[in-house]
């Protein structure tokens, strides 16, 4: 077919196929309601001609007709996608796959909040999934408009659902693993300054303190400070305060601690055991392999998508949920009984 610089239209496809524009529109939009049908040969011809011409449906026009965009926005990516070893990439992939299966497209927006006070896209969407957090103005806009939305590992407004890992139970299990091995001096490596305040930060730290207190143990000094340097952390907690075990906020910190331990000639797990959150890439490759708390990232992504779609499909029966997902303790070579000095 001849090439040109104009945008192909339904009218052109209809002219090439020798059928009406209405027939082309219904075939390309999959609209076979009210007894409409066409022969398989004609349906194939229409789709082939449309592909050859480079025809793409007008999404705005389709949305006006069906009052639905089949588009979901993912928000909060400016906050979470810049971190090293980022867990949210896995969550987003799982959410996107679940949405694609249901026929939805997905858009990710990272707006300039100096120019706009909302992270919602300028086009209509059927719902939104928020990765950890978005601006207060964005939450207010979703609440006011009634837009269905789900927040992963963050805080929602009155009408939003929340999907979170059960960090309270997971922290207890990690600490009990160390206590059962005989550890009584357990340090906590908290988040770095690049981590914005959210639910996991609070739940993990507060449970560390309360669980040790419940066992009659004293938290190691520095547990409530920002993690800045692995060598400085080890010098303080292990060499100075005689900690025999460490619970690290995430796998990135744990890997930095392993590297610093080699530099300081501290043997893991002989001198100090190490447990971390997030069973991600390299955790089972480093030496020693890390004992971890495996956050169910893919499951979080799938359930977030399913929860959002349920709200879209049945708004009348929807009620906001807070879904806590259990985590797995994966025991590897970085934990052992405390070294007898």
Describe this structure as you would to a colleague.
With 341 residues, the chain is an alpha/beta fold. The protein folds into 3 domains: 10-57, 434 Repressor (Amino-terminal Domain); 71-165 and 297-326, Rossmann fold (3-Layer(aba) Sandwich); 167-294, Rossmann fold. The protein is 40% helix and 14% strand. The chain has 12 helices and 11 strands. The protein has helices spanning 10-17, 21-28, 40-53, 59-66, 77-80, 88-101, 136-145, 167-180, 199-214, 230-240, 251-263, 297-313, and strands at residues 71-75, 105-108, 127-131, 149-152, 161-165, 186-189, 245-248, 273-277, 291-294, 322-325, 328-330. The strands form 2 sheets. It has a 6-stranded parallel sheet with strand order 2-1-3-4-5-10. A 5-stranded mixed sheet has the order 6-7-8-9-11, with helices on both faces. Strand 7 (245-248), helix 11 and strand 8 (273-277) form a beta-alpha-beta unit. Helix 1 (10-17) crosses helix 2 (21-28). The model has no long low-confidence stretch (mean pLDDT 89).
Features:
elongated; 5-stranded mixed β-sheet; 40% helix; 434 Repressor (Amino-terminal Domain); alpha/beta; Rossmann fold; 12 helices; 3 domains; 341 residues; 6-stranded parallel β-sheet
Secondary structural class? alpha/beta
- Shape annotation: elongated
What is the overall number of helices? 12
Report the sheet-strand fraction: 5-15%
What is the end-to-end distance? Answer: 83 Å
| CATH superfamily caption of the largest domain | Response regulator
Q: Summarize model confidence as the mean pLDDT.
A: 89
Overall helicity: 40-55%
Strand order of the largest sheet: 2-1-3-4-5-10
The CATH architecture of the largest domain is: 3-Layer(aba) Sandwich
Q: Which ranges are low-confidence, i.e. pLDDT below 50, for 5 or more consecutive residues? A: none
């Amino acid at each position: 077919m001849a090439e040109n610089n104009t945008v192909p239209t339904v009218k052109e496809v209809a002219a090439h196929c020798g059928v009406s524009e209405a027939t082309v529109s219904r075939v390309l939009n999959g609209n076979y309601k009210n007894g409409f049908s066409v022969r398989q040969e004609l349906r194939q011809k229409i789709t082939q001609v449309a592909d050859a011409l480079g025809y793409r449906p007008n999404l705005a026009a389709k949305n006006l007709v069906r009052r639905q965009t089949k588009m979901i926005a993912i928000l909060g990516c400016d906050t979470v996608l810049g971190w090293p070893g980022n867990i949210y990439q896995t969550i987003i992939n799982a959410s996107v796959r679940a949405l694609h299966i249901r026929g939805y497209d997905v858009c990710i927006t990272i707006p300039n909040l100096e120019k706009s006070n909302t992270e919602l896209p300028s086009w209509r969407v059927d719902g939104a999934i928020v990765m950890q957090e978005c601006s207060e103005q964005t939450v207010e806009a979703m609440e006011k408009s009634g837009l269905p939305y789900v927040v992963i590992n963050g805080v929602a407004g009155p009408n939003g659902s929340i999907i979170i890992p059960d960090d309270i139970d997971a922290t207890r299990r990690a600490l009990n693993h160390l206590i059962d091995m005989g550890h009584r001096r357990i340090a906590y490596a908290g988040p770095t300054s690049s981590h914005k305040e959210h639910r996991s930060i609070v739940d993990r730290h507060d449970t560390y303190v309360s669980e040790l207190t419940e066992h009659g143990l004293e938290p190691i000094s520095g547990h409530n400070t920002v993690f800045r340097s692995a060598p400085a952390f080890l010098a303080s907690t292990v060499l100075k305060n005689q900690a025999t075990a460490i619970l690290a906020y995430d796998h990135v910190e744990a890997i930095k601690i392993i590297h610093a331990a080699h530099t300081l000639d501290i043997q893991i797990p002989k001198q100090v055991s190490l447990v971390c959150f997030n069973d991600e890439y390299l955790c089972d490759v480093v030496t020693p392999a890390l004992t971890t708390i495996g956050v169910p990232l893919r499951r979080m992504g799938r359930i977030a998508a399913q929860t959002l779609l349920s709200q879209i499909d049945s708004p009348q029966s929807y009620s906001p949920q807070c879904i806590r997902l259990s985590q797995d303790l994966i025991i590897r070579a970085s934990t052992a009984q405390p070294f007898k000095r």
